[in-house]
Specification:
CATH architecture of chain A: 4-Layer Sandwich
CATH superfamily of chain A: L-amino peptidase D-ALA esterase/amidase
Shape of chain A: globular
Number of domains of chain A: 1
Oligomer: homotetramer
Number of strands of chain A: 16
Largest sheet of chain A: 7 strands, mixed
Structural class of chain A: alpha+beta
Radius of gyration of chain A: 20 Å
Helix content of chain A: 25-40%
């Protein structure tokens, strides 16, 4: 089940109808899941701010770097120009270059882009090397193009799919998760949608309940045991710990609120707060990034209009700084819930001779019940 | 009681002996609390990385800006040079300049500083204007000097003292809190201490339990009520909501780990994750800053030694990036616990005709019990 | 003479009518020059983006840190919110806190600000300690208020006035300089004005001519002399070299182009390129900052309008990224010329028993003539 | 000739013996130049901090973003960890992904890297689309591997080679240039080497002489002509102006000074000052990046040593902040001279039916002579 279906009600704001990033109108998501033989467990996830020609109709965007041990490509241009001009691609660490090259194929071949000579692919990644033969770089050009072509609105597949196929979170099978918040009209009525690719560690809490501790699966468990002279664990978690590239999380945030790049960066920064609420430990080796964009028509950057205007200003409409606060909370809540969804929807996966178990839902719910962490939480 | 005395065991790492920033050897803290008449509720807190001449024996340091709606002074030089050269002062927003001027008095008058012509005071602030006649700027030069002179190791006074005298957190009385973590020898044996000045909003959770919700006191409570056409609340919380400068939190982090400015900045960034775990909403108006420094002798910047060396390199010793991870978790946990301590230790305060209640400890513990959030949390 | 009057034609863009920051309509500048006895040589310069209530009618703004060895206060809030809400004050390093406190006095006392509890003074500085008894902190509250009150449009006094009273640039008397550029209509017709406070070192070039070298006055002159076992110079330049706080430059940029904070930051970054063209050496001890703001009515942040709009977006008009390029060049050129003006207009100053000579204009012009660096430069 | 051979003596510091980045011991440079048919004019340049296994023996490094309109990949990890772990590759904009993928091939296949699962390729770029069929992405995997294999110390080929094969600077043929500075012993004796890939615009000055103006070739020339209602120019410069991706410059800085990542970033920032001195206009469309690293053995990050140390600090030696100043000037001067070398050594190139002329050396020297800009510049 999704977390909410199982009774995990995160935060105080209402969700959108799908409780997914696609509640932000126009946003499309596509996955390609690659499972082959014993050792290939990887994939691609594409998030499209809109389904038109994104290069010609750019969206304001921002990248926030929570911890930069990662290979995300495209960040400096997004920071400088405040624009996103390609689909956002998530994939396996060592496949970033090939995915970026495929994005070039996609953009260069779009009608209207015949003269384009400069494109900034925005590709983020996470290390699925525990379950996947990552050095094999199995993501092919066609996989990326298919993920983009597959992208659509509506419900989003979660769990061990797309870029989340081979990932591990809190020692359990992680993957793709999504969630959304829709502000009531008196707070602006805007929607915020989040999609995550989870592959990090920590001490899992769910709605505050100490799930990781009670399941005996968490960061530094072995090191903190009495008399722990040295780690002797040979489990998957130990294998991870030996790998300096011990994961990462990519958080993609969409909103229909008319917000510029500066405030989108602030929005993205809040995603780290949602991440923190799940018990993430923020380790050195985790590449933690948030990418935010606005789909509001009034903030789009239409290249033809910009060129035509030349040195004349273009009209736009923007929320004030003060109006951002409820959106900030929406990001925090949706990020937290999206991470839970990535765990709740993931299934046990075996690869490279290792098995990473899915979060044991029944035992987890039992823990949540013991901590009165299920159901609507309200004033008593 | 402090949170831990009441049974709130945050995280998985052991505390230092005092569970305070002063567990980091050499760190000293001093408060001056100013309560006068009906309207003056303010103060100063000084944190000294060491009790020598900090200007001549600088410590590596970093400032992380979680949300820059604040008047912290001194950040650009700390970022550029990676050094802290004065006591760190916390105080009331509009008193930052006078406090900074007093820091100049202090540094300029220290023996050995007779020729000093340039000093970078590091003064952070929070807005205590709800309970305090902030426009009156009642912090005097002598108050700052007294706080510095008062500074000592040992137990740290918490709650409505020093810079926390007039602050409000989660709608309850906030203030000063502190906590620490001491890593076991197999993780390096280093100590991390945190001191916070709390004055922000959100939806309070304590060890994951939904305290704010169950007490009916949280951010957006009124706006989210059914049929909430407009806010009609006239409580303190409403007064705050009308004030765009709606608070802030300053988090000061000390460690004896030999860490350079770059890794101290990363350490400081993790403080925001501890903040997030308490339910902070990250609102626009909250100035959220973390300041980190190392007291390790091998990373000190001794001006005379640096001058003597001129163009020759100076020996130092530094932890690797990978060795940072347990320290990151220590910051997260100590920050979370320090915030709880600021609430648990604060007492009801009246000022400017308004009363901000202390967190109701009994009801809070009841909620924590219901959510099984007290006592040692461990595998079951 | 001003540089241009002496034949120094910098760059290719036309100036505004005054060749001053005040060519940007509404911008006002005020100086207070403090010369007392033998040892006090300091002052204050105030730049007002407009002469209304800046707190209630904020302007978009940005601070770019070229080298952060400086005590500029207010930068984190400007970066976060993209707004400037006070006059910009330039003064002596150790007087920043008192100047900031005076700015609070000013803002808090303005009609309409009776309820204001949070103000972000933007005060930048430079170290005038070579000629001025800087430790005496002679800038009084009233001096700052007078500089603000004195501020007006029209011609701007340059040289050893205001915050430039005691400064030294390239070993000569520096001070305040200003210049402007007005883009032709086919490039948008916007005006860019720059005001500088110069107090840094390097190897002075003027319009490319090696003035510092030929006058035998430049950074590292003594160290580079053959057989230079150690520096034995006892001149002012040597005194400076011994001071780790060896100066700084503050560059204030105004434009009437409708530009948001992100593009203002980019504009500010280009000021460092103008600085570089004068031969600045970018030394460790020089605090080099640029502050940029836009006066365009369509980008103002009116607090009352923002509050009234609450969660609805506000209309604005903005230049595209591509339209910025001519403005970038305008900043580079105006900064370079403003620095020359600060030197050309400064007069020899004695303080603390030291004399810093003005740039010897006749010898300088001779050098410029020899290098064919005077008069209109154009295709041949 | 190289600029210095032609009499252009930049700055006041002495050069290294080769006046090249390879004056920094151990640094190696390799080019692959790709010229095919009428439309392929591109290439690859590889810079190796040392010729060992860079992944296992990382060097401290930093990336400074002067203007982020560029596709440089790898920057966030360098910023976070302060390390460079691969050869630095320069190439054509749209070939960055394929070049990055080839770097992965290289690193993954090195002996000792059999278990590596995460690599951060550092690939920078510039747009050679004016002369090169950039959309064809003609850089093959083997080209990148060959450039790395070709890399060696000693003299560096300059001009229209490697990544500079198809680039244009100031309207003339640009390309690869290099230069160095060696500080005298009393300033530390360190060497700084710079290599540039030039592809940007502005108003060229050489040693301060207005070469671009006098040759009638510069940014905004047509727009600024009297009565310029609109641009009607159909030259290469016009073609460029129509392309929003109008170039960039990549500046790679090597030093043997023992400097950490923070001070390397400061070093890199100064490269923009050297760039500015050549008349660069800092336009929106120019992606201007500087990458700096130190080769000093005492600051290397040896993975095996770091792993072995685990939570114990590792000894290192570092220059103080104050010791950086002469290195800063060295970067400024070497960058300026490297850019001149890129122009002086480039040859006229035809591609895609367009011809970009080399800088006319004779006319240029004539201009330099008229401005007395040749030969040793010294006090008179």
């Amino acid at each position: 089940p999704r977390a909410r279906e199982a009774g995990v009600i995160v935060g105080i704001l209402p969700t959108g109808p799908l409780n997914a990033i696609t509640d932000v109108a126009g946003v499309a998501v596509g996955h390609v899941t690659i499972i082959r033989g014993d050792d290939v467990r990887t994939g691609v996830t594409a998030i499209l701010p809109h389904t038109g020609n994104i290069f010609r109709e750019k969206v304001p965007g921002a990248v926030f770097v929570g911890n930069g041990f990662g290979k995300l490509t495209g960040s400096t241009q997004v920071a400088e120009l405040g624009e996103i001009e390609t689909p956002i691609i998530l994939t396996s660490t060592l496949s970033v270059p090939r995915a970026a090259d495929a994005v070039l194929d996609y953009v260069l071949s779009l009608p209207g882009n015949e003269d384009v000579q400069s494109v900034n692919p925005l590709v983020a990644e996470t290390n699925d090397g525990l379950l996947n033969d990552i050095r094999g770089r199995y993501i092919a050009r066609e996989d990326v193009l298919t993920a983009i072509r597959n992208a659509r609105g509506g419900p989003v597949e979660e769990g061990a799919v797309g870029a989340g196929t081979g990932t591990v979170a809190f020692g359990f099978k992680g993957g793709i998760g999504t969630a959304s918040r829709r502000l009531p009209p008196n707070l602006g009525g805007y929607t915020v949608g989040v999609l995550v690719q989870t592959n990090f560690g920590g001490v899992l809490t769910i709605n505050g309940a100490p799930v990781g501790l009670e399941l005996g699966q968490h960061y530094l468990r072995d090191e903190l045991r009495k008399g722990a002279a040295r780690r002797t664990d040979s489990s998957a978690s130990a294998a991870m710990a030996d790998d300096p590239a011990d994961g990462s999380v990519i958080i993609v945030i969409a909103t229909d609120a008319p917000v510029d790049a500066r405030n989108l960066r602030r929005l993205a920064a809040r995603a780290m707060m949602g991440l923190a609420r799940t018990g993430a430990a923020g380790t050195n080796g985790s590449g933690d990034y948030a990418i935010a964009f606005s789909t509001a028509p009034e903030v789009r950057i239409n290249m033809d209009r910009a060129r035509a205007a030349r040195y004349a200003p273009l009209p736009t409409k923007l929320l004030s700084n003060e109006a951002m606060s409820p959106l900030f909370l929406a990001v925090i809540e949706a990020t937290e819930e999206a991470i839970y969804n990535s765990l709740f929807r993931a299934t046990t996966m075996t690869g490279r001779g290792r098995t990473v178990e899915a979060l044991p839902i029944e035992r987890t719910l039992e823990i949540l019940r013991r901590h009165d962490a299920l159901g609507k939480r309200d004033a008593r």
